[in-house]
Amino acid sequence: MNEIKIFSPATVANVACGFDVLGFCLDTIGDEMVIRKTTEKGIKITKIVGADLPFETDKNVASVSALALYNDANPDCGFEIEIYKNIKPGSGIGSSSASAAGSVFAINQLLGRPYNQTQLTNFAMKGEAIASGCEHADNIAPALFGGFTLVKSTSPLQVLQLPTPEDLFVTIIHPQIEVKTSEARAILPKQIPLQNAITQWSNVGSLVHALHTNDYNLLSQSLNDVVVEPYRSQLIPHFDSVKTEVIKAGALGAGISGSGPSIFALSKSKNTAENVAKAMTSIYAKTDINFITYVSKINTEGIKILS
Ligand code: HSE
Predict the structure, then answer these.
(1) How many CA atoms lie within 13 A of 43 on its CB side?
(2) Which protein residue's CA is at the shortest distance from atom 8 of ligand 1?
(3) pLDDT 10s digits, 207-218
(4) Does the annotation mark 80 as catalytic?
(5) pTM of whole model > 0.85?
(6) Of 2, 5, 167, 239, which is most buried with the most CB atoms under 10 A?
């Protein structure tokens, strides 16, 4: 195989209570990438469609992560990468991770799969680091493993795959304002009150239990973030109204997707998730902020090979 075309999915990091550790993978929203072997050695970005991103190998997340794998594997060929972006950079649904995870996944396939998903996550984190300023894996892991993931540790990297309840759907609204991940991280407190820590780790534990037991009520009770959301929600206009209205529309819970500005809500059934999209739309339609909404099943497969 000399060429591969893949779908690299968007992802939701944090999942309310699990800052920097929890994430899940979306099914219908994502980028496409074409990666081919070249006789000339090295990594080259040859095409970027849909976003204004750098072509320089040391500046694009897709090539930085590809290079981490390439330098480790030291193959006697090179690779060129075409990126077709559908996930808007800065949306909060894992745009940089889709590029970083996609390139290492594809090159691994072309090399005959010498690396496992954890090793690929490690390479992709190198790319993610240049986009967000730190090596977090909570978007990359769900893109590569699929479904829900928990990053148990980044050094050494340990990723746990969590089960996905069958009827779970997500609704996302992306208000088109800019929230930089680095700034959304900088406003967070370095210390938190013990009572908030207790609430938060009880929510993470119960959310994981809810996924294992298909307990939608417990899942709903666990989707609560007392550590990060109070600070970051101030960067997202109408966040509180969106949260109130989606719950009224039947959502199990809602929160900031990654570092924002997108807001996600989880629902039990596609029908409810579509009603939740209408509730989100009704709030932002009254403002002058442009927005996009998405409804998706949870993607338990992760990155998909298209050809
Ligand atoms: N866990 C990261 C954060 C995700 O919330 O800053 C960034 O997409």
Answers:
(1) 26
(2) 258
(3) 999 999 999 999
(4) no
(5) yes
(6) 239
